[in-house]
Design brief:
The protein is mainly α. It contains eight helices and no strands. The protein is flat, with a radius of gyration of 21 Å.
Length: about 200
């Protein structure tokens, strides 16, 4: 009887303490860092054959920093995630943040990269990151923060219509970013509800 209790206790402890996601996905983590290195190497390889990319050292440094920050953010999300929806929320938020910065610096989300309205996307993202860090990336807080980022995409588009008369607003791009942030918000909300049970 005592052995049965011990065995049952062991089974229960294993169920309550599953293997962390960052360990279960160790292979995917290695693949992710390898893919980042490959992406950084592609322009250099292309330049050797005189085709496509014409990057400077500054371009490589910028791309390397962007990929490194994104990779570290993904590692952090893996360690903080407590469920698959939680992990998906972090993945969507990191993806949206990466492409917000990349596209805004490359060509500008609205107009060109020098348009003043585009600084609003950087400001919204920076405030969101600071707020998330201060609130320790809790699921409920992340749901609210990413939801506000979704709304900010549309608000910045409306502001651009007034500040840049005669200039078309890329509503399709803004809708895509808003959808990504909204999807992340719903994932974090799902995790917050799970934790509240």
């Amino acid at each position: 009887m005592s052995q049965m209790k011990v065995t049952g206790c062991t089974i229960m402890m294993q169920a309550e303490n599953p293997i962390p996601l960052h360990r279960r996905l160790a292979g995917w983590r290695i693949a992710g860092w390898s893919a980042a290195a490959a992406l950084l190497a592609l322009p250099a390889i292309s330049m050797q054959f005189g085709q496509g990319a014409d990057w400077t050292g500054r371009d490589f440094a910028f791309a390397g920093i962007m990929l490194l920050v994104t990779g570290l953010a993904a590692e952090g999300g893996l360690r903080l995630a407590r469920s698959w929806p939680h992990l998906l929320g972090f993945a969507l938020a990191i993806f949206a943040g990466f492409f917000t910065v990349w596209s805004n610096l490359a060509v500008g989300i609205i107009g060109d990269e020098d348009a003043a309205i585009n600084s609003g996307f950087f400001a919204a993202l920076l405030i969101a990151i600071i707020a998330a860090a201060l609130l320790r990336f809790r699921a409920r807080a992340m749901s609210i923060i990413t939801g506000l980022l979704a709304v900010s995409q549309i608000m910045l588009g409306l502001a651009a219509r007034h500040l840049m008369p005669g200039h078309g607003v890329e509503w399709g791009i803004l809708a895509m970013f808003a959808a990504l942030w909204l999807a992340a918000s719903l994932c974090f909300r799902t995790e917050a509800r799970r934790q509240a049970v």
